[in-house]
Input
Amino acid sequence: MPTVRRVAHDFLERRGLTTVFGNPGSNELPFLADLPDGFRYVLGLHEGAVVGMADGYAQATGRPVLVNLHAASGSGNAMGALTNAVAARTPLVVVAGQQVRPAIGPEANLSNVDAPSLMKPLVGWAAEPACAQDVPRALAQAVFEAELQRRPTYLSVPYDDWDVDADDNASAVLDRQVQRAAVPSGEQARLLTEAVVTARRPALVLGGDIDTAGLFDDAVRLAERLGCPVWAAPSLFRLPFPNRHPQFRGVLPAGIEPVSRAFEGHDLVLVLGAPVFRYHEYLPGRYLPEGTRLIQVTEDASAAARAPMGEALVAEPGAVIDLLLKALDAPNTPTGDYRSVPAPLTAEAPRLHPEEVFAALRDELPGDTAYVVESTSTNSSWWRQMDLRRPGSYYFPAAGGLGFGLPGAVGVALAQPDRPVVGVIGDGSANYGITALWTAAQHRVPLTVVLLRNGTYGALRWFGDLLGVPDAPGMDIPGLDFTRIAEGYGVAAQHVDGVEELRVVLSQLPDGPRLIQVDTALTTPS
Ligand code: TZD
Ligand code: CA
Output
């Protein structure tokens, strides 16, 4: 009879979950025994970085990914990073080691007391199998729940379970197929099509799910067929549409009143693949202008249920785009040229304006470069300078939790070794996931990190002014030299002074990881 571990490893192998991101402890070692040859273990030095890397990897591959964490302490360290994975709807399967069964009740050291409750508010599904024989099935459930709900799941496994003989039925999970289809019924399709076809001035709002689901190009086709303005949903974490397309109006501001103002004059707003809406700044107002109808199409039933206004259809945005393209069986509206880029703003030497840095990225790097961005005060500079036309070009921490950027960039680069990957990281943000540099060095991940050093938490300064708190302490972060930090982790690094030097350095593509530090002037996010 195979052991529980053997069946679990076989299951993971069959489902393609063979790249494991983790940071182990004693409780996890028995799971890691006898890992078959095809498995790759990517060690992260801190659980925030482990989950950030796994999140980037899973987003870039579109597949569920296994994360292995140590008991309650490791799970706790991972919690902030998991908020981003939840908001990005990333199917991470977190397996945490637990003390042996007899030791959990008396709370021996490293017991994860009531493990599922520790994680449940955050992950979609959390469990600890009731007996060792249930571990293979529970692991399969963790994977399928993550895939079906598109949300991280959490399984706590007592470490004495792995060596137990599996029961006769255990191998039944190996051949399971679990799929999901969410195509609107005939009547739902008819009503939705009618609403879109008869709208006088429709508008499209696209969420990050559009890029995640591989619908970037389909969204362009639909928008051009409709000839209508297109916005990206607020609090954007993936770019769903080319940002210089003539129909693109930018990312919606993350406040109730400005969103409503943007929709003024539109009789229909069709939201595809986004919650309605992830506001940030509390700017109260009416949710929608008078006479504007909003229809949200999302696979995420919870996002449909919790929206404060509008109609919702829980369906795959891809299926809805298909049926609308068939219904709108007319030639595409001519769209005109892509919008040109303004000359970058400049700053007083020796600092560079962030726009000069981004213009250099845009000009010197290939058009299919994937950018993982965690630099908060430079948001408007970024969108003014960039010209992103390909799927999978842009990632940002989905819940706004810092510590995704640097690890996420490592994960994306691990997943797509043939695509140029650049992390654009602030000198504040870098510290939350800095240990990912070590993993990048060990795996020789081809990644460029552009480190923007303005010496401060720039976005918080701006927020301080907005909220009437101009004198808050703890805003500045002087005395950090990321070239030395990076070298300490084994990553080649250099400080670059002028924009010409930056352009030269960027034009040389690396075969391993490198960090480029630039001193930048303080700007505001909007
Ligand atoms: N901690 C975590 C985990 N997430 C956060 N979002 C914050 C703290 C608060 N925070 C922001 O929301 S932006 C920011 C902080 C500390 C400043 C980031 O500084 P930076 O970027 O240097 O990366 P800018 O461009 O200087 O703002
Ligand atoms: Ca900064």
Observations:
- The chain has 20 helices and 18 strands.
- The radius of gyration is 24 Å.
- The chain has three domains: 4-173, 186-327, 354-519.
